[in-house]
Structure formats: C-alpha cells, structure tokens
Amino acid sequence: MSILHGARTGQDIEQRLSRLEDVEAIRNLKSLYAFWCDKDYNPTELGKLFADDAKWNSNVLGNYAGRTEVEGFFRGISERLTWAHHFMINPLIQVADDGKTATGTWALIDLVTIIRKDTGTKAAVAITADYSDTFVKLPNGEWRFQSIYAGIKLMAPLLEGWAENELWDI
C-alpha cells in the first residue's frame, strides 16, 4: 500500500493502529541512531539498534556487515569525527503489509568537527546525505535496522563553503 494513502479502508482499526505504531517506533529508532551518533558515536548503544546480521554501507565511509563490524565502524569514526550534530529530516516510512519489515528514507544535515587527513587539524564541516534504510521487527515486537545506506552528497568545510568543495575526503 502506498505511503500516500490516508484511511485504510478494508482494514480493521487494530491493523491501522498497529501500522501507525510501527511507523512511530521506526521514527524513534532513527532518532535514537542520531542521538547516539551525537554522543561520540557510542558503538555499544548504536550496536543495540541493529539486527545481528545488519549492514551499514556508504558511498564514502565504507561497508560493514554484521553488528560487530558496524560497532567497529562507529568506534573508529569517533576518532576522526570528534563532534557531530545530526539532523534527520524528511522521513518516508513504508511498513510491509505483514508488519514484519519496513523501509525508510531520510535526508541528513550533519554539522561535524573532523580531524583532517591531510593536516591533522580540526575543521568545521557540513555533511549532507540521503539515507535508505531497511528494518526488521524482532519477535518481541521491537524494530531494528536490517541495513543502512548513507549516500553522502556533500562534505565541505564551513569556512570555505560548499560551492567549490562538494565532496571532501575525511
């Protein structure tokens, strides 16, 4: 069913309410993801948000399979990104008809402090990305990330602007 439909005619109120609760739980999951990213990319807390066989992939930051590798990525990235403030905006969430899986997209605006590879100095950087996520509902009813894809669009130093620095190597 399309995310643009309003009332779900033909579905009982319990099914409709369940779908709304699932969408809200997924929205909260993504908000927790941003929260823990902004708390020094806490690998333990972030790891709890992922299914055991989850994947985290990016066109710039690499590919990681399984919760252990995902946690390792977050542990390592905190050495380069020493401060961050994630703004997850424009969510589009689609729960499958069976209520066991879902997909979602978000746009990211991220203000970060990066330790530059080339100089080892700190830089204030703006990052934008498009997130495409898949979710799985556990037997206990809680949602987890099955996969995250962060398609980074822009990475530019704030003092220089992004017009000449569309994608920056961190």
What does this protein structure show overall?
There is one protein chain. With 170 residues, the chain is α+β, with helices and mostly antiparallel strands. The chain has a single domain, classed as Roll (Nuclear Transport Factor 2, Chain: A). The chain has helices at residues 13-37, 43-47, 67-80; strands at residues 50-58, 62-65, 81-95, 101-115, 122-137, 143-157. A six-stranded mixed beta sheet has the order 2-1-6-5-4-3. A hairpin with a 5-residue loop joins strand 3 and strand 4 (101-115). The longest helix has 25 residues, at 13-37. The protein is elongated, with a radius of gyration of 18 Å.
Kindly name the structural category.
alpha+beta
- Reading off the top of the CATH hierarchy, the class is best stated as Alpha Beta
Uncertain segments are none
Rounded to an integer in angstroms, the radius of gyration calculated over CA atoms is: 18 Å
Q: Could you give the order of strands across the largest sheet? A: 2-1-6-5-4-3
Q: Beta-strand level of the residues, as a percent range?
A: 35-45%
Whole-number mean pLDDT: 92
The strand count comes to 6
CATH architecture group name: Roll
- N-end to C-end Cα span: 40 Å
Share of residues in helices = 25-40%
The general outline is elongated
Structural domain tally: 1
What fold name goes in the CATH topology slot? Nuclear Transport Factor 2, Chain: A
Could you describe the largest sheet, including whether it forms a barrel? 6 strands, mixed
Order of secondary-structure elements:
HHEEHEEEE
Q: Counting H and I runs of at least 4 residues, what is the number of helices?
A: 3
